[in-house]
Amino acid sequence: MTKEVVIVSGAAGGIGRAVAERLARLDTHRLVLCDIDRKGLDEVIEGLPAAGHQSFTVDVGSEASVRNLFLELKNQGIQASALANCFGISPVADNGDRISLEQTSLDLWNRVFQVNSTGIFLMCQAFLQQENIKNPEQPKRLVNVSSAAAQLGGYRSCPAYIASKASVIALTKSIARDYAEDGVLANSVCPGLIDTQMFRQGNPADNVASRVPLGRLGEGDDVAGAIEFLLSPLASYITGASIDVNGGYRMA
Ligand SMILES: NC(=O)c1ccc[n+]([C@@H]2O[C@H](COP(=O)([O-])OP(=O)(O)OC[C@H]3O[C@@H](n4cnc5c(N)ncnc54)[C@H](O)[C@@H]3O)[C@@H](O)[C@H]2O)c1
C-alpha cells in the first residue's frame, strides 16, 4: 500500500512530536518532519516506531528555507497530501513574565509574526503550489495550530502572539474557502493550556490546572488526537473550522 506523505512542521516541539508519534503508530503515513531544532528532530525521528520517515531542518519564517524543503521533496518525487503546522514562538520576559503591549518593540512584534503568521503563509502556500495538488478526486488536508489565546484575548501570552494566532485562524478559513473546489480541507486547532516547553517558560501558577473544567492541563497528545482526526477521512466534511482542544477552558 502506498503511504500518504504528511508534513509535520514544529515536529521537535511538544505538540508536533505527539502528532508525529501518533501518525507513525498508525503506520499508514510516511512522515516528513521539519523544525528549526535539528537536535530535537533527531531525537523525535529516532524514537518513532516505524522506519522510512524523513526530517529536514527548516526555518518556517524564511521563504528560501521553506522553498528548499519543497524543492527537495520534489526532487525526490515526493508529493505531500497533508500538512500539520505545529511550530510557534511565544516570547516572555527574561523573568518569565508576560510582555505587555507597551513593552513590545517593533522588532519583537515582527519576529513573532515572522514565525507564527508568515511561517503559516509560507508553508501553506508551498504545500498548495505542489504539482497536481488541484485534484478534487484526491483529498488534501491541512491543519494549522492556532491558540485559545486568539479567541480569549489571552492573559498569559504577549499581544504579538495573540494577534499572530488570530491571523492563523483567518488565513486557514481563507484557504478553506479558496481551495475547497480543489479537494483541500483546511482547519485550525486552538489548544488551551498544554503542558509543553512553551507553556512552562511562562511561569505558570501552581494552581493553573484548577481553572480548567476537566481539572488538568492538556498533554501534547490531546492536541495530536484532534489533529489526527482532522487529517483522517473521518473529517471529510469539515473545513474552515477551528477545533477547541482546551478541556473546557473556553467554551464557544
Ligand atoms: N503549549 C500551549 O499551551 C499552547 C497553547 C496554545 C497553542 N499552542 C501552539 O501549539 C503549537 C506548538 O507549540 P508547543 O506547545 O508544542 O511548543 P514547543 O515550544 O514545544 O514547540 C514549538 C516548536 O516550534 C519550533 N519552531 C520555532 N520557531 C521555528 C521556526 N522558525 N521554524 C521551524 N520551527 C520552529 C520549535 O523549535 C519547537 O520545536 C504552537 O503553534 C503554539 O503556539 C501551544
From TrEMBL:
SUPFAM superfamilies: NAD(P)-binding Rossmann-fold domains
One GO MF term attached to the UniProt entry: oxidoreductase activity, acting on the CH-OH group of donors, NAD or NADP as acceptor
Top-level taxon in the UniProt lineage: Bacteria
Xref: InterPro entries: NAD(P)-bd_dom_sf (IPR036291), SDR_fam (IPR002347)
Pfam families (alphabetical): adh_short_C2
One GO term of the biological process aspect: fatty acid elongation
UniProt-listed CDD domains: SDR_c
Family: Belongs to the short-chain dehydrogenases/reductases (SDR) family.
Protein name, per record: NAD(P)-dependent dehydrogenase, short-chain alcohol dehydrogenase family
Species: Marinobacter zhejiangensis
